[in-house]
Amino acid sequence: MKAVILAGGGGTRLWPFSTEEKPKQFLKLFSNKTLIEETIERLDFLQKSDIYISINKNHLSLTEKICENLKIPTSNIITEPDKRDTASAIGYAAAIIEKNHPGEVMALISADHYIGNKEEFQKKLQKAVQIANNENTLNIVEVIAKTPNTNFGYVKLGKQIDEDTYEIDKFTEKPDLKTAEEFLESGNYLWNTGMYVWKASVLLEQYKKLKPETYTKLTEIVENPEKTEEIYPTLEKISIDYAIMERVDPKKIRIIKADIDWMDIGNWHTLYDILKNQNTTGDVHIVSAQEMNQKKHEKHQADDITICIDNNQAYLTKT
Q1: Collapsing DSSP states into helix, strand and coil, what is residue 318?
Q2: pLDDT in tens, the chain (319 residues)
Q3: How far apart are CA 186 and CA 197, in angstroms?
Q4: Domains of the chain
Q5: I need a surface site. Which of 35, 70, 166, 217 has the fewest CB within 10 A?
Q6: Residue 94, CB half-sphere, CA atoms under 13 Å: how many?
């Protein structure tokens, strides 16, 4: 198996802590390691040469330093010349994996996810690899929904195949609160993590069928790398879910149900939910807007303001 860590996002929802120059995947949020380093550590059952990292070209130097420190070949860095969403990034990675390692299974792991149960994560990932090898299916490790979260997509479970493997009934993009509460109560819906596991060749066959123009361009890029800067920005800007997963024959999809203490670190509220149950390093001071006004440190009234002080820098968010 080859693992591809998706680390090309901008992390805009964690601004100002996460910036365009240094987005959240390059920050140390939960330990003395960056999110990318924690993701790599989570994959320690693999050889370092089996780990690839997909990034935006603006973050190449940051990624090279991480790879050099952790002994990952810098040749395993997949650089996106432009932001064309996940269908392009994942298709590009699949084309490279298939060219270099024909018939190989690839796993897509996001660099901005929190996973508390590493052992269970590895167990379910390896099960997905086995299914991909045996059945040539498109597999997703999905997690048990714990709250009616409206920031996540959901999948409805279909026919049960074994203890924790299912067919899929349908995808639902970020529902409203009432719908999310109904999903949670039913027990038939999981959070959609975007942790995909499949043979690169099997995924590319779906691109060829469902997105033939993208497939042709990706093939040309891989065969003629010198054309990457010219062709890649012309790829359709669309997510993998809309381009492939929601259009493919559901019988070709398998859901592996997991309980891995997972969270997508998408915004300040999510980050707070994770950190409140952990020991943090350094001093954290939370000052109410009312107290700040009384001390004349704040000139404008606000309902709730949180100030985080880190390395002598202050970050303010309004919630």
Answers
A1: strand
A2: 999 999 988 766 677 777 888 888 998 888 899 999 999 999 999 999 999 999 999 999 999 999 999 999 999 999 999 999 999 999 999 999 999 999 999 999 999 999 999 999 999 999 999 999 999 999 999 999 999 999 899 999 999 999 999 999 999 999 999 999 999 999 999 999 999 999 999 999 999 999 999 999 999 999 999 999 999 999 999 999 999 999 999 999 999 999 999 988 876 766 777 776 665 555 444 444 444 333 333 333 344 545 554 554 555 554 4
A3: 27
A4: 2-275 (3.90.550.10), 289-318 (no CATH)
A5: 70
A6: 28
